[in-house]
Amino acid sequence: MATDQTERADLKLAPETGDVLFDIRDLEVYFPIHESFFKSMVSTEKKFVKAVDHISFQVMKGEILALVGESGCGKTTTGRTILRLEEATGGEILYKGQPVRKYSSKELREYRKRAQIIFQDPYNSINPKQTIFDIVAEPLEVNGVCSSEREKEEKVITAISEAGLRPATEYLYRYPHELSGGQRQRVCIAGATVLDPDVIVADEPVASLDVSIRNDILKLMVEEKEKLGVTYIFITHDLSLAWVISDRIAVMYLGRIVEIGETEEVVANPKHPYTKALISVIPVPDPLAKREHVILKGETPNPENIPSGCRFHPRCPEAIDACKEIDPEDVHIGGDHYAACIRI
Amino acid sequence: MAKSATKAKPASEKKPVERIQHDGLLDVRGLTTYFKLGSGNVKAVQDVSFTVAPGESLGLAGESGCGKTTAALSILKLLPENGRVVSGEVLFDGKNLAKRTEYGMSKIRWKEISIIFQGAMNALNPVRETGKQIAEPIQLHEGLSEKAAMARARELYDLVGINPKRLMDFPHQLSGGMRQRAMIAMALACNPKLVIGDEPTTALDVMVQAQILELIGRLRKELDLSFVLISHDLSVMAETCDKGVVMYAGEVVESGTTADIFNHATHPYTRQLIKAFPNIHEKREMVSSIKGDPPNLLNPPPGCAFCPRCDERDDTCFTDHPGLIEVEQGHFVRCSHAKGRPVASPAVGDDTATDAKEV
Q1: Domain range holding B293?
Q2: Which of A104, A155, B152, B178 is the most exposed place for a label (fewest CB within 10 A)?
Q3: Chain A residues in contact with B236 (beta carbon < 8 A)
Q4: Across residues B230-242, what is the average pLDDT?
Q5: B74 touches chain A (CB under 8 A)
């Protein structure tokens, strides 16, 4: 599936900005809370769920960037906003130097060809009444990519066999219910790669799969990254999976990135107390290794009422008084490694 | 597999009313459960034996479909209509549960053995206040008034770390972690001796999982509970259990202490399964997967169930069904390549079971 980059240059792009595929600057996604008519008359303030609260990071070409965090931390919203499945309320997402927000509908169509998504649950994300061929061919039809039926078929077969369903011809006319969970997830991946995208947002792609199958899907992602040069934004709650396959990790907490850096560096040398705690509680398959667990008290606060100062301070084992007032800036630790904590 | 159910229980035959002598608190011997389908019997659990001592925690691990949940449901006789225990004994605290009637079981469930289900959202009644749901078994089993039962529910909330103000909340008003805590409170409502946790942390975040596992560990110590953890996640089992049983295709393939299983894994399946879990404190490497699929349990292969996926198989593996072999004291492996003392299987007789289970 070697692709000629020039072949799809019809999207007007700024000159190549080096290796940066996405430059996300101060991104903000707030969801308004609908209140009763009476309340809205009385209260002066409009309330928001601050799902993503001013985050900035870059996604490099051909890397796997893992967005890690607990549920409700904004990782999925970030991924969806990058694809413009949610609208940002502030900040900028620059794709190859162009602001995604300002795309015309035609440009957006072109953009959607290049940025694909894989959902968590392969049982619900594909149409049970379509054959595998129809599922994988649909993006091609919608985008009118293929000039002939033959070309379409070739592309579908290549995508399916790249996704590890071999021989592809045997799967073409089956229905989703005839496949196992792992095979369905492969169909989803084939559907995402058939347009030969630049970037795939993988939203918990293995959370609903069994261990032995899970690892195959992760391997497939690494293979596609290496062979096809696909960039992955890998959204997961499981830091150990992120550690296995990603190049860089961004740890999110309550709408903020608290730590970002090269995977091995972040895991071996975590700076933010939240990252430290997350790493310490990951169970390891070794009963003799008794490690100290830093178990945080309570639960992630409601993103309607974000704590003052450092948003992590109510649960932070290392918090000092100043943490209640100062909203920490990113501290450069070295190389690509940043953490947002005033105590560093 | 249809061995006579009467064979392996000499003590109970002599004095049916008295306590049966057996190991530990829970002693499962040669449990075999089938599901009846139109096309035949699904051999979901075959000849599974293990013991749980008072205060001990045992992990039942394996991939989905390996029979771990079915084994647990067979203990409590909660199987769906088409499932039945074909043979084997479930000895609990001097009673043979396999022989009990439905009425007899209702005296055991919750009062002596309770279960924490996986999806707390599905296990709790969505249209009833959680506190009232917790009070219900207390009223039923202990004969307390509703008021007294609610007071007890309040204490339980305190014990599991939920603010007692939330007693009258409906399940949807609680977060995932709190719902799981409420499930645990419910499981502890009647002071059971044994709690079965069926994937109690699977749908939870890592931090909440750590909180729940810590809670279970603490309660186990405080209340001197025995615990059976059913989990697909070997690392959770490694962290929380004293003993472990690894199941594959309805059979026990390896059992022993967790140190035996993780640090001296002998069965090729156990070894491959352990490798499938990343260890974030070791060198970073791609986790490996186990190729192939588990066999269809309608017609399990005649030889070793794992051999089509095994790297170490030879020709005999396809034809000879391996029995359990004791490779070390208390460490059993179902592999014909393992070296050690064979256990008289499949009927895991009483004498072997007795000295075998002392860990």
Answers
A1: 10-112+192-356
A2: A104
A3: 283
A4: 91
A5: no
The predicted model scores a pTM of 0.85
- Cα gap A200→A221, rounded to integer Å: 10
CATH code, A78: 3.40.50.300
Structural domain of A271: 18-37+45-339
Does the CB of A219 have a partner CB in chain B at under 8 Å?
Answer: yes
Is A159's pLDDT higher than 90? yes
pLDDT tens digits, B250-270: 999 999 999 999 999 999 999
Chain A closest CA to B19's CA: distance in Å? 35
CB neighbourhood size of B212 (10 A): 23
Burial of B291 (0-12, 13-18, 19+ CB in 10 A): exposed
Q: Which has the minimum average pLDDT: B14-28, B171-185, B342-356?
A: B342-356
Distance separating alpha carbons of residues B275 and B269, to the nearest angstrom: 10
Calpha distance A158→A168 (Å, rounded): 8
* Judgement on whether residues B101 and B249 belong to the same structural domain of the protein: yes
Q: Determine how β-strand B113-116 pairs with β-strand B226-231.
A: unpaired
Cis amide linkage into residue B346, ω under 30° from 0: yes
Of B178, B210, B288, the CB nearest to A215: B288
Distances (CA, A) of A202 to A198, B135, B183: 13, 43, 32
User: Do B281 and B196 lie in a common domain?
Assistant: yes
Residues B201, B232, single domain; the answer is yes
Residues B270 and B264: beta-carbon distance below 8 Å: no
Q: Which chain A residues touch B274 with a CB distance below 8 Å? A: 285
Taking CB atoms and an 8 Å cutoff, what residues of chain A touch B281?
284, 289, 291
Q: Which tens digits make up the pLDDT trace of A59-90?
A: 999 999 999 998 889 999 999 999 999 999 99
Number of domains observed in the structure of chain B: 2
| Inter-residue contact A235 to A250 (CB < 8 Å) | no
Host H or E run for residue B93: none
How close B105 gets to chain A, by Cα (Å)? 33
- Chain B positions in Cβ-Cβ contact with residue A269 (cut-off 8 Å): none
Residues 220-279 of A with CB under 8 A from B: 222, 237-241, 243-245, 263-264, 267, 277-279
Nearest to A284 among B175, B211, B238 (CB): B238
Provide, for chain B, the percentages of residues in helix, strand and coil under a 3-state DSSP scheme, each rounded to the nearest 5.
Answer: 35, 20, 40
Number of Cβ within a 10 Å radius of residue A307: 14
Instruction: Check if the beta carbon of residue A27 is closer than 8 Å to that of residue A52.
Output: yes
The whole-angstrom distance between B128's CA and the closest CA on chain A is 24
In degrees, rounded to 5, the angle at the alpha carbon of residue B222 between the alpha carbons of residues B195 and B119 is 35
